[in-house]
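Intended use. Records like the one below are meant for learning the mapping from a protein sequence to its folded structure. Do not use them to infer anything beyond what is encoded.
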Amino acid sequence: MRIIRAEAMGFCFGVRDALAVADAVDQPDLVTIHGELVHNAGVLAGLEKRGFRMAGENDRRELPATPAVLITAHGVSDHERERFTSAGKRLIDTTCPLVLRVHRAAQSLAADGRHVLVIGRPGHVEVLGIVEDLTDFDVVTGPDDVRRYPQAKLGVVCQTTTAPRVAEATLTAIRRENPSADVRYVDTICQPTRDRQQAVERLAAAVSAMVVVGGKNSNNTRELVALCRERGLATCHVQSAAELDAAWFRGRDVVGLTAGTSTPEATIEEVYAAMRRICDVDNKETARLTAEN
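Structure written out for the chain above:
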């Protein structure tokens, strides 16, 4: 069995910068992280061990008890920022600049009198941050969610981690279902997402199976998994090396390896090393059977 790594995978600059800010906090016990800093269980466990308080993704309406609140790379609405500052909280803001770009694009479209359509995952923290500052919007997950909208002017943006193929298909459906509407599209998919998707597409032609490393609730990781399966690849989604099953690799000749933007390099290397061990055992077993025959 051979292992081929994707050309682009793992941490994006937004996640790396957010973690650097967290690492520089000298009194973590006085800070509540507003949600999950990254969608990676190992990283979150490390932050908790340092003493950070954490608000769960579904418990963010409660006002944190700590004097400081760390805004994650996924961002929050301007309304949410005002809620914290009005309560006297000090904000440590690690919002990814590419997420901020989506916020500004959506608000600009709204200011132009457009009904804003956000292509993304409903309920995801990034999407919530975008739409909480809007009054006239819909969130669509893909082309099947698109309908005819009564508004004459539509504005379309994307969650940063939306798969480009999904965005393109959804935009086509919006225009098809609303032929008389004035549709303006602002492409807000981030470049790291594109890089990782394109790397997987190139790798798919050379492998028969793929291991994708990343959090189970990481949107960009889930999109990588979906892309691999659409390409007909047997796909194994793991969060760590401990989740690998040697039996899954039996009979596979070439396996690819990729990872989402919230996956640390150390985790990728641990998975790669575990795959190498499985590969060595598999190759030795094959050689033994060949010799016996």
